[in-house]
Amino acid sequence: MIRRNVRRRPQPTVRLSRFRVELLGFLAILLVLAAYPLRAADEAAGERPRLTARPQGATGALTLTTLDEQAAFALSQAAVGKQVGDFVLLDRQGRPVELSRYRGKPLLVTFIYTACFQVCPTITRNLQKAVDTTVSVMGADRFNVISIGFNQPFDSPAALADFARQYGIRLANWEFLSPAPAIVGELTTNFGFSYVATPAGFDHINQVTLVDAEGRIVRQVYGEKFTAEDLAEPLKLLITGSAIPPETGTLQEIMERVRILCSIYDPVTGRYRTNYSLYFQFAGFITFVGFLIYLSINFWRNRRRGEGQAH
Questions:
Q1: pLDDT tens for residues 265-284?
Q2: Residue of 184, 279, 188, 270 lying closest to 232 (CA atoms)
Q3: Which phi and psi angles does 216 have, rounded to 5°?
Q4: What is the C-alpha to C-alpha distance for residues 33 and 165, in angstroms, rounded to an integer?
Q5: Which residues make Cβ contacts (< 8 Å) with residue 92, sequence separation at least 6?
Q6: Can you say how many angstroms the Cα of residue 133 is from the centroid of all Cα atoms in its chain?
Q7: What residues does 112 pair with on adjacent strands?
Q8: Can you tell me whether residue 3 is helix, strand or coil?
Q9: Residue-level pLDDT at 45
Q10: Mean pLDDT comparison of 62-71, 106-115, 269-278, 297-306, highest-scoring range
Q11: Which residues of 24-35 are buried (b: 16+ CB within 10 A; e: fewer)?
């Protein structure tokens, strides 16, 4: 009886490459993105946001030119999907700032006028509260905010600096910019912002414009009262859906984005907290994907082994 020694081929060691790590992270993020769709409604659950600001003057008896709300809303929505123009404005120190400088991160944009004593301060205060909470969960280095003074030449860099100082805006990622009078019309149209002058100030649309990292307008948020949820939820999708910078560690950045997605808004406290159940969903999903990869590797290994024995 002849015994043949069959030489077994060494089994290859399976190692997760950088590509597979990125793939797992990308699939995990896709799972959570499905659970956090952008809210298409422009109304809060309890009340409709106030679309326009109408100053009533000192006595309330003035007859004012008013903004056509339907036309203003249509112009605002028509701006969604447009690219922000490469306008050059002045910061609070009078230095030129190109809006293209803000590409690479999501951006929140508001229009104000510094002589406003009611609506613009209210919007600014509520936006500040929402941004403070958003910074606490995402970090100030992941998005930027700019407020643009549209009442030129009165909303000068010095006037905007005084306005920011008066309302305590000290966040490093929030800047106040002053455009030249010649570009105000083109600039406001680009962002879908409408206003008309009145004897008591300006009748204008109340909106915060969300711009993605590529400089494209993706959403308008309306009203005077902004909560962290109104801004942070769409910001979360913009941040986690953007490309990972080449200088950033891929796995570390994926885990950080998972942490952001696992933060949920608590309407009772008005702040974000970590939803640990999502971590278990992530773990289960990644385990499932890993098992599928393992089965695929074994399938192809056995197939190649069978082809080798056949020859």
A1: 666 666 666 655 554 555 56
A2: 270
A3: -105, 135
A4: 38
A5: 157, 158, 160, 161, 164, 175, 176
A6: 14
A7: 149
A8: coil
A9: 41
A10: 106-115
A11: bbeebbebbeee
Which tokens sit at 277? Answer: 């159940």
- Tell how many helices (H) and how many strands (E) occur in the chain: 8, 12
Query: Which tokens in the block code for residue 29?
Result: 């993020």
Residue with tokens 């971590």: 279
**Residue 68: HSE in the Cβ half-sphere, 13 Å Cα cutoff:** 4
Q: In a 3-state reduction of DSSP, which class is residue 185?
A: helix
Rounded CA gap, 30 and 226, in Å? 27
φ and ψ at residue 223, rounded to 5 degrees: 115, 170
Q: Yes or no: say if 128 and 163 are a contact pair by the CB < 8 Å rule.
A: no
Q: What tokens were used for 160?
A: 């905007």
CA distance 294 to 286: 12
> Smallest Cα–Cα separation from 175: which of 258, 89, 84?
89
d(CA 114, CA 209): 19
DSSP state of 83: B
Residue 287, CA atoms < 13 Å, CB-side half-sphere = 6
Distance CA 115, CA 162 (A): 11
Pairing state of beta strands 144-149 and 107-112? parallel
Distance CA 296, CA 286 (A): 15
Beta strands in 52-117 (DSSP E): 52-53, 88-90, 96-98, 107-112
Find the mean pLDDT for residues 102-128: 91
Note the residue count of the chain. 311
